[in-house]
Every structure is written in structure tokens, then in C-alpha cells.
Specification:
With 347 residues, this protein is an alpha/beta fold. It has a single domain, classed as TIM Barrel (Alpha-Beta Barrel). Helix content is 37%, strand content 18%. Strand 5 and strand 6 form a beta hairpin.
């Protein structure tokens, strides 16, 4: 197991030098955030990012994430251009020694929360989600709301156009478009020495009437079965999947880990407080609803040797930074995960 941090590049308030000081953390996963969605990532900016990270005594262990253009998800004729660009990006990443690439297939949105600073009894704040709040929102007004993790055009016209297009796309069509994407991209990834890891939908259910298809064990297996290649795998996120109490995370780790298809492990704890309602907690099992010891034990039992990172952290000790990605609580999470890994390793 190789422990890493997510790093947001030069605009990240968390310095590489500080990440280097977190015990057990060997590297980071990063991305090129200034390249428009759907365009090719050139080799030189990738190489420059890698050199910057290596100069700080760390390794660039993977990419999180390469965005998938909406035309690919919608299955439009223009997807061919963006598929070719995605493949060229994968080739360029592989040429720079990048072996793991995370991506998702969520329509319009990446991960979504309804409150970015929910207060906890200890004085910290966390990310939370309440579906009852989501259904009150007019999606065509979202261009005026600061929603986290949005990648794309915020204009009212663009939103209206995308929602109109997705009104004609059901889950079956999204699955067809994902299959076509993987059929084109996976062979290129395999030839480039790159392993693809799809991230589950977060949260793992439809929002604003948009079809979201990756949210449970059955759907994850279906992704793997679409293209039978070691390069076609998962970024298994305990927090995303754990928002649905029906999901058994240790069971998923054993199933997909034994198939060799977990390429990236996100570890996060959550506490479900109602129907499609949850908040994110500190990493220890006692803080949330997930048994983190059992999850780590499952990873150890399947011989997981991929990259793992502590996921979203609380805002603690007065730290200001990128929501969910401060230094302090993620460092506590990293230390906790390393302690669990050492414990299960000693048996």
C-alpha cells in the first residue's frame, strides 16, 4: 500500500513541503486544472508538475482526475474528438510514468454537498448532504450558487442546454455511452501502462433528475465487465459508497480487490442521519458509521498494493483552505490509516 495526498497544484494552500512531513505519505495525486475540459494535456506541463513534486521529495503517484467531456457522456457525434483527446492525454500521462488515472462519469456535476461548513459538537466543521434541500433547488438557478467540485461552464445558457440534453438520456443510454468510452480508451490505457479507476457517483443516487449509475456493488462489477482488461478498474471511495447504508464496503474491497481491479483507494468516514442525509466525519470508526478497521483489513487481506489516500477532512484548528482538503485533519486521517495498516499487517 502506498499512502498519498491529493494536491491541487500551485493554488493549493497546502504546501508540498508540509505534505512531505506527514508520516507515511510517499507522494501526491494531482491534475492540470488550467486546461479546458476535453482538451489534450500536453507532455511538458505534466512533466513540469512531476518535477515540482519530485523536487519536494515526493512522487506523483497518479492523476485525480482527467475530466470526461459532457459530449462523451451524452453520446453526441462530437464525442469522437473528445475521445481522441482523452486517449492522447492518457498516452502523454503514461509517457511521464503516471500509472493510475481517476475519472468519473457523473452528468454535469462532480461530488455535491448541500453544506460546506456543518458545525460539529467539538467545534470543527464538515461537509454534509441533505437530499431534502436538493429537491428544493431549481437546477437552472445553479449558475448563481457556489457548488463544490463543479467542472465546466457556469452560464445559465449552458446549464439550460445541458439539462435539456440529459432529459433525453436515461440510465440505459448512460451505460451505453460509458461502454463506448471504455471500449475506445481502455486499450490505449493498457498500451500506455496506465490503469483507469472510475470514481463512484457522490452521492450515489440521482440528483436533479440526472441519471447517475455508479453507486453500488452491482454497478461497479458491471463497469469492470464492460471491458475485461486489468487497465479497467475502480477508484473505490468508502465515503461516496458509504452514504448508502446498503453498501458493504469491506465486501466490495474483497470482491474487487481479489479481481485486481481496485487501482485507487479513497478512505473517508461518514455518518448517515436519515434518508439520503449524511455528514462527513473524522476518519476513525468511532466518529462515523463505517468500520474503518474492517475496511483496512479487507485491503490487506486481498494484498492491495495500490495507492490510498485519506479523503475529505474536517476544518479544524482554525485552518482555512480548499473545502475538504486542508492539511490538519487529513494528516490525522493519514496517521490513523497508517496505524490501522500496521495493526492488520502484524495480525
Amino acid at each position: 500500500m502506498k499512502l498519498c495526498f491529493r494536491w491541487y497544484g500551485e493554488q493549493d494552500p497546502v504546501a508540498l513541503q508540509h505534505i512531505r512531513q506527514v508520516p507515511g505519505v510517499q507522494g501526491v495525486v494531482g491534475a492540470l486544472f488550467d486546461i479546458p475540459v476535453g482538451q489534450v494535456w500536453p507532455q511538458e506541463p505534466i512533466a513540469s508538475m512531476r518535477r515540482r513534486i519530485e523536487d519536494a521529495g515526493l512522487k506523483l503517484m497518479g492523476i485525480e482526475s482527467v475530466p470526461v467531456h459532457e459530449d462523451i457522456k451524452l453520446g453526441r457525434p462530437t464525442r469522437e474528438v473528445y475521445l481522441d483527446n482523452f486517449c492522447r492525454t492518457i498516452q502523454n500521462l503514461g509517457s511521464q510514468g503516471i500509472s493510475v488515472v481517476c475519472y468519473n462519469f457523473m452528468p454535469i456535476f462532480d461530488w455535491l454537498r448541500t453544506d460546506l461548513a456543518t458545525p460539529l459538537p467539538d467545534g470543527s466543521t464538515c461537509l454534509s448532504y441533505d437530499h431534502a434541500d436538493v429537491i428544493k433547488i431549481d437546477p437552472l438557478s445553479l449558475g448563481k450558487i457556489n457548488l463544490p467540485a463543479w467542472v465546466g461552464d457556469f452560464s445559465q445558457a449552458r446549464l439550460k442546454e445541458l439539462f435539456a440534453a440529459y432529459a433525453l438520456v436515461d440510465e440505459a443510454r448512460i451505460w451505453d455511452n460509458l461502454a463506448y468510452f471504455l471500449e475506445q480508451v481502455v486499450p490505449v490505457a493498457e498500451q500506455s501502462g496506465v490503469k483507469l479507476g472510475i470514481h463512484p457517483d457522490d452521492p450515489p443516487w440521482p440528483i436533479f433528475g440526472l441519471p447517475r449509475i455508479i453507486g453500488n456493488e452491482k454497478s461497479l462489477q458491471r463497469v469492470i465487465d464492460l471491458v475485461d482488461s486489468p487497465a479497467n478498474g475502480l477508484s473505490l471511495c468508502s465515503g461516496s459508497l458509504g452514504a448508502d447504508p446498503a453498501n458493504d464496503i469491506p465486501s466490495m474491497v474483497r470482491r474487487f480487490g481479489l479481481q485486481g481491479r481496485i487501482h485507487f483507494a479513497h478512505l473517508r468516514n461518514v455518518r448517515v442521519t436519515g434518508e439520503r442525509r449524511f455528514y462527513e466525519t473524522a476518519h476513525p470508526s468511532s466518529e462515523g458509521g463505517l468500520d474503518m478497521y474492517e475496511i483496512i483489513k479487507a485491503y490487506h487481506q486481498v494484498g492491495f498494493n495500490g495507492i490510498m489516500r485519506p479523503d475529505h477532512g474536517r476544518a479544524i484548528w482554525g485552518e482555512k483552505g480548499i473545502v475538504g482538503y486542508g492539511l490538519y485533519d487529513r494528516s490525522l486521517g493519514a496517521a490513523y490509516l497508517m496505524g490501522l495498516w500496521e495493526a492488520v499487517s502484524r495480525g
